[in-house]
Specification:
With 288 residues, the chain is of the alpha/beta class. It has 12 helices and 9 strands. It binds ligand 9MR. Residues 26-27, 69-70, 115, 159, 191, 222, 270 line the site of ligand 9MR.
């Protein structure tokens, strides 16, 4: 859910209120949104979304705490300028995870805590976090979040890990290791940003099963299926088939029990802004 659109567009709000039993903030819970200046929190939009969800009897999925993108400038610029020591960066990170988790304690039952920590090749992404906090940062983040709200289910979330490939192998290995070390991670989020110009991810159901066998819950967290415009009936048929396949595989594996669309309409989807000439990715068109 895009918080600005929710506040300004009645038709959008009406669909959001009636068609879904769970909502996720597209941007409103990200670090740059909630802590725009160091120590100064702005929960406004995020809280409005939570209220909206409560009013409509919906769950709220938390997205996202630790990511290399959409970090506040005070932090990225500060790190770049050498304003913070390694220990300070660690303390800032811990504080962020604790504040955000606590703020929504009891309201958010599932959190995409760590987002996109791997490259497509399966190597670790060289984010600031990896660089400043060292190899253990992911495990620590889950521990901090769990301490702040022991009831929330904590997820690792990434894109391109729907099928079996080097990246999903790497995520699998990480989660296996974390589970064996009793790190409180309970689920994996497969974003599932698909496109009709690509074949459906290879080994999808097998991949779901191997994560399930680790004792993890699986969520599809950001589903959309983009099309290279203009639309043709063949492309739309492929889109239908991708949507069906992603849903069917999830329904076939009991541990896969949560599906979130990354936007529900082509009017407000992130898609056209990011992929030039592509769109029509969501169930509702630009006229809702
Ligand atoms: O949809 C989000 C868009 O409005 C933001 O500008 C963008 C910034 O990177 O993030 C988009 O959401 C991303 C999500 O948080 C994580 N997975 C990829 C999503 C699409 O880029």
């Amino acid at each position: 859910i895009n918080a600005e659109v929710l506040a300004s567009d009645q038709r959008y709000a009406a669909i959001a209120a009636t068609e879904f039993n769970s909502v996720t903030a597209e941007n409103a819970m990200k670090w740059e949104s909630v802590e725009p200046a160091q120590g100064e929190y702005d929960w406004g939009q995020a809280d409005e979304l939570v209220e909206f969800a409560m009013k409509n009897d919906q769950a709220v999925r938390g997205h996202t705490q630790v990511w290399h993108s959409q970090m506040p400038t005070w932090l990225t610029a500060g790190i770049k300028d050498g304003d913070f020591s390694r220990a300070e960066v660690r303390a800032i990170m811990k504080n962020h995870v604790v504040q955000v988790t606590k703020h929504f304690k009891g309201k958010i039952r599932q959190w995409d805590v760590v987002n996109e920590a791997f490259n497509d090749s399966g190597t670790e992404r060289h984010s600031l976090w990896r660089e400043y906090l060292g190899k253990d940062y992911i495990a620590n983040v889950f521990r901090w979040a769990h301490e702040a709200d022991p009831e929330a289910k904590l997820f690792y979330n990434d894109f391109g890990i729907e099928g079996i490939n080097p990246k999903s192998d790497a995520v699998y290995d990480l989660l296996k290791k974390l589970r064996a070390g009793e790190v409180p991670v309970e689920g994996v989020g497969l974003q599932a940003h698909l496109g009709t110009q690509h074949p459906f991810p290879d080994g999808y159901e097998e991949n779901l099963k191997r994560f399930a066998d680790l004792g993890l819950e699986i969520s599809l967290t950001e589903v959309d299926v983009r099309i290279e415009l203009p639309l043709t009936s063949a492309k739309v048929a492929t889109q239908t088939s991708h949507y069906k396949a992603i849903l069917k595989g999830c329904l076939a594996v009991p541990a896969c029990n949560y599906i979130t669309l990354w936007g529900f309409d082509d009017r407000n989807s992130w898609m056209p802004g990011w992929f030039d000439g592509e769109g029509s990715a969501t169930p509702f068109d630009a006229k809702y």
